[in-house]
Inverse folding.
């Protein structure tokens, strides 16, 4: 197998198993399968996407708008072993007054253990190091509590719960929100010798909690208001 060459793909951020770069519309969209992720019911099961079909041309327009948007930083995730485009991560609604942003992530290939977490770690670090943010937040379907437990490994914490947020497949679902502050991020990074993911991503993943804190938060609000 040919060794990965970071210069080949205009790598912007690089980790142990993934690298991030700016989207290449011709390569990633027009000749790739990016649009198909949003047509896949499995990929969009816990996302807001998958309501209307998306073709390559429409996806290209969406990506072009995101690249041109000064309040958005969209990066594609590349598997370093295969140079395959496996996902995207994005900091949206970047606000330089409040020094805040919103995290968005979609992976078309979820088979590579630790890839999504490292991609988020790289983008989070860049948000604090170079964009000078002080807080990054996000939200997810309550059923994705295992992913929340992964995010906890790099300093994200639950901070809110939205009951009956929306309806999918005829059933209401809840959304949990989470965030990380620059103070928490840099404290953890310092404790780990400068690497938020530690020297071994696989060893970090072994520390992942199996406790469903999202359900605990739901019960907290239920008990607090008695409904």
């Amino acid at each position: 197998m040919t060794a990965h060459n970071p210069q080949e793909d205009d790598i912007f951020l690089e980790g142990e198993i993934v690298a991030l770069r700016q989207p290449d519309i011709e390569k990633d969209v027009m000749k790739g399968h990016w649009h198909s992720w949003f047509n896949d019911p499995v990929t969009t099961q816990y996302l807001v996407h998958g309501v209307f079909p998306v073709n390559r041309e429409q996806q290209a327009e969406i990506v072009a708008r995101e690249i041109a948007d000064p309040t958005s930083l969209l990066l594609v995730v590349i598997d370093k072993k295969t140079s395959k485009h496996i996902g995207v991560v994005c900091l949206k609604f970047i606000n330089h007054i409040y020094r805040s942003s919103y995290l968005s992530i979609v992976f078309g290939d979820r088979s590579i253990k630790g890839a999504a977490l490292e991609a988020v770690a790289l983008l989070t670090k860049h948000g604090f190091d170079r964009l000078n943010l002080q807080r990054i937040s996000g939200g997810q379907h309550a059923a994705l509590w295992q992913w929340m437990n992964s995010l906890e490994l790099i300093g994200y914490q639950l901070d809110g719960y939205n009951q009956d947020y929306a309806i999918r497949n005829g059933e209401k679902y809840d959304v949990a929100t989470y965030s990380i502050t620059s103070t928490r991020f840099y404290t953890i990074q310092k404790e780990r010798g400068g690497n938020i993911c530690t020297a071994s991503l696989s060893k970090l993943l072994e520390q992942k909690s199996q406790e469903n804190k999202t359900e605990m938060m739901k019960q907290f609000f239920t008990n607090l208001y008695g409904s």
Q: What stands out?
A: The helical segments are 25-30, 34-37, 56-68, 115-129, 145-152, 182-191, 201-205, 213-225. The mean pLDDT is 94.
